[in-house]
Amino acid sequence: MNNKPVRVRFAPSPTGPLHAGGVRTALYNYLFARQQGGQMLLRIEDTDQNRYVPGAEEYILEALQWLGITIDEGPQQGGPHAPYRQSERKEMYREYAERLVAEGKAYYAFDTAEELDAMRKRLEAAKVAAAQYNAITRMEMTNSLTLSAEETKSRLESGEAYVIRMKIMPKEDIRFNDLIRGWVVVHSSQIDDKVLLKSDGMPTYHLANIVDDHLMGITHVIRGEEWLPSAPLHVLLYRYLGWESTMPQFAHLPLLLKPDGNGKLSKRDADLGGFPIFPLEWTDPNTGDKAKGFREEGYFADATANFLALLGWNAGTEQELFNMEELIAAFSFERVHKAGARFDIQKANWFNQQYLKNLDDARLIAQAKPLFEKQKINVTDEQVAQIVFLLKDRVHFVKEIVSESSFLFNTPETYDQELVLKKWDEQAVSAISGFKDSLVAFEGEFTAHNIKENLAATMETLGIKMGKIMQALRLALTGEGHGPDLMVTMEILGKDEVITRLDNALTRLPAQIRLA
Ligand code: GLU
């Protein structure tokens, strides 16, 4: 183990929007780097030009920024190891591949696509489990191990297409201690002769990733479980390049699973469930396919980060609400699970609700006001404040403060039939008309408190229990059986509107009952 200052990297490929798993990887890298007083790098792994998607890099930057994941070195920030985009580092990688060839740890391979295909078919016909280029099969193929030195040289000089493959030694044990999974031991016979340099001169992911992690002084590779099968190959590459003593430590994070826990989370699950799995909205530039974003769906950035942090990690206590500082302090690899983490959008909604409840009213009001305006609902700051007070504990999203308050702006046209038949009886009629009369005569300030006193006094006089008529009153005022605090609701509606609504109910409901 070494005591070098911690340097971690988030190394996405710009092949589309960053999904929740990718964001969580970035987040854990960030938490660990900040906790250790280390550095966090962003490296764009864009060596696979066929999979490059325009806009994806910008998307990644914006998503990290939204969540408050700050980067110390990267394409935007620059740094001592610039450039941080692999396509701009293309020339650097060849040297290492050639060095491995010179040392007998890699070789040139000239096989055409047809020849590779024929090998695959041959092996399949012979029922060889893994059809691959390896210590046995490479001796039957067209490469610098089977061709003479002159033949190889002349093929290279004539400009024939070739790749450089790693020459995996057949009898090596590869072991490394994953910070989450413990010891991983693999035998080299399990690994095929992976291509390191492609025929277009670009490195493969494996070569570029190892060369860059080495050159950039990365101390910890924190990434998704899907890279675990590649890790033994990476360890071998460090060994072959003579860098094993300074090799980073690995931490492979658990997969994100479908909401029901069966299988890997996919965009299809999100589309079917109507929930986001991406931080920001995304429209695929090639297909026009759209994906929802946490931001646009109304999740707070800090609630989203909190939710993602707990997908695969917990503090070992009951605490679930963590701001970024608290996450940085509490994070540890020992408490990252090995098993996949179920992506439960209800939990994300719960987090959002908690953050909404804890948000101070002034900020909530400032966020809600423009949403009312967007819906062309005219409200004063004071009204928004009242509505926020009324609904704050009942909603998960700021936008619900608008949707859930529509009953305040629209006098009911219809009334819940079942409830009408159940609750609109003679007693209700006399209670409500008595209450209405008391309001007409009422001259004081129309506050929730005074309204309640008024109602209580009226019911006392009529000899009717308050509890008996509350639902009928709500029905008369809103048309429905459930809703927020009725006294505050009446205060917001104002005296005139309350009287109008009570009058409406008194005249309309008898007819509704007759027709039933
Ligand atoms: N470019 C890889 C990805 O897209 C990086 C994997 C790694 O972190 O090594 O996930």
What does it look like?
The model has no long low-confidence stretch (mean pLDDT 96). Helix 10 crosses helix 12, helix 13 crosses helix 14 and helix 20 packs across helix 22 (495-515). This protein has a three-stranded antiparallel sheet with strand order 3-4-7. A two-stranded parallel ribbon has the order 1-2. Among the domains are: 89-207, Glutamyl-tRNA Synthetase, Domain 3 (Glutamyl-tRNA Synthetase, domain 3), CATH 3.90.800; 359-397, no CATH class; 411-515, Arc Repressor Mutant, subunit A. It has helices spanning 20-35, 56-67, 90-102, 113-125, 149-157, 205-215, 231-240, 267-273, 294-297, 301-309, 324-330, 345-358, 361-374, 381-391, 398-403, 406-409, 417-423, 426-441, 448-462, 466-478, 486-493, 495-515, and strands at 7-10, 39-42, 106-109, 163-166, 173-178, 182-187, 195-197, 220-224, 249-253, 256-257, 282-283, 290-291, 341-342. It has 516 residues and is mainly α. Glutamic acid is lined by residues 11-13, 45, 209, 223, 227. One of its GO terms (molecular function) is tRNA binding.
Structural classification: mainly alpha
Give the radius of gyration: 33 Å
Average pLDDT taken over every residue: 96
Distance between the termini: 80 Å
Question: Runs with pLDDT <50, length 5+?
Answer: none
Care to count the β-strands? 13
Domain Glutamyl/glutaminyl-tRNA synthetase class Ib catalytic: 6-350
Protein name: Glutamate--tRNA ligase
GO biological process, one term: glutamyl-tRNA aminoacylation
Main location: cytoplasm
